[in-house]
Amino acid sequence: MTDTRAGFVALIGEPNAGKSTLLNRMVGAKVSIVTHKVQTTRTRIRGIAMAGQSQIVFVDTPGLFQPRRRLDRAMVAAAWGGAADADIVVLLIEAHRGITDGVRQIVETLKTHEGSQPVALAINKIDRVEAKVLLALTKEMNALYPFVRTFLISAEKGHGVEDLRDWLAGELPEGPWLYPEDQIADLPLRMIAAEITREKLTLRLHQELPYQLTVETESWEEREDGSARIDQIVYVARDGHKGIILGKKGETIKSVSQSARAELEDFMGRKVHLFLQVKVRPNWLEERERYNEMGLDFRDGNE
Question: How many alpha carbons lie under 13 Å from residue 98 in its C-beta half-sphere?
């Protein structure tokens, strides 16, 4: 008879609700990229948190929004797929934004899945509103949907996060752990490295280059001195985008490379040699192979 518990927890919500920040806080390490641009998380990154005898495997889903392009549709499908496969679902909303149209849509969709697994509500960024506003929001959300529990948290500052983690730990099914105790994410290092570089590009370029880029780790060489050489390609959809990423005299790509390398070295605990190339690939948003690499489902047509 085992007294260990393990299972999957899906974090769902609108883009920028703080899902990646919460995941990183729970896990205690940076496994999901965090930027102020919406729709940053493309793949179902799993972070693994240990709480007592429980192993909580988080599925960090892309933010739910109205899909327009194929990539958008694949991301939304991945989000709901992650929720359907989980043992527990946590809906994350922002205290200061309240009940938006997007939140209402998510709740309506949850109702169609009702009964399959417990759904908890986490109201994030509680430091941005007064207590009476929080109380009203809690009542209104619970009138919309029968959440099993409501948590008031600040993912950024850590308030209430431990309570949520402890509750999740106790709700997971009994059984052996799914991953080795020291493993924090089931993404291959190649993909984590590509995500880190993509985060740095997103932060550096802000509004200049929306989502028309992807980063792939082309090769990874382990060196005798313990360091790693990582070669990555930044794919863009248009020639004009290549110049934006390179920047004047290559300054932008150099800066991105330096900050990505520094974070990779911190993450891996060893020296990293990072080399970036920028290539134009006009139709990468329509290539099945790209979607497979991002862990997304490539669907034909508008389904």
Answer: 9
Phi and psi at residue 72, to the nearest 5°: -60, -45
Q: Is 68 exposed, middle or buried (0-12, 13-18, 19+ CB in 10 A)?
A: exposed
pTM: 0.59
DSSP character for 298?
-
Q: What is the pLDDT of residues 194-253, one digit of tens each?
A: 888 988 888 888 755 545 678 888 888 888 898 889 999 998 888 878 888 888 898 989
* 3-class SS of residue 158: coil
Helix, strand, coil shares of the chain, percent, nearest 5, are 40, 25, 35
Beta-carbon neighbour count of residue 52 at 10 Å?
12
Q: Structural domains in the chain?
A: 5-171 (3.40.50.300), 189-293 (3.30.300.20)
Reported as a single tens digit per residue, the pLDDT across 46-88 is: 678 888 899 888 875 655 444 455 545 555 555 555 566 788 9
Q: What is the largest CA-CA distance in the chain?
A: 64
Sign of the alpha-carbon torsion through 73, 74, 78, 79: negative
Q: Could you say which DSSP state residue 178 is in?
A: S
More confident residue, 187 or 253: 253
Structure tokens at 249: 């005299």
Report how far residue 7's alpha carbon sits from residue 88's, in angstroms, rounded to the nearest whole number: 8
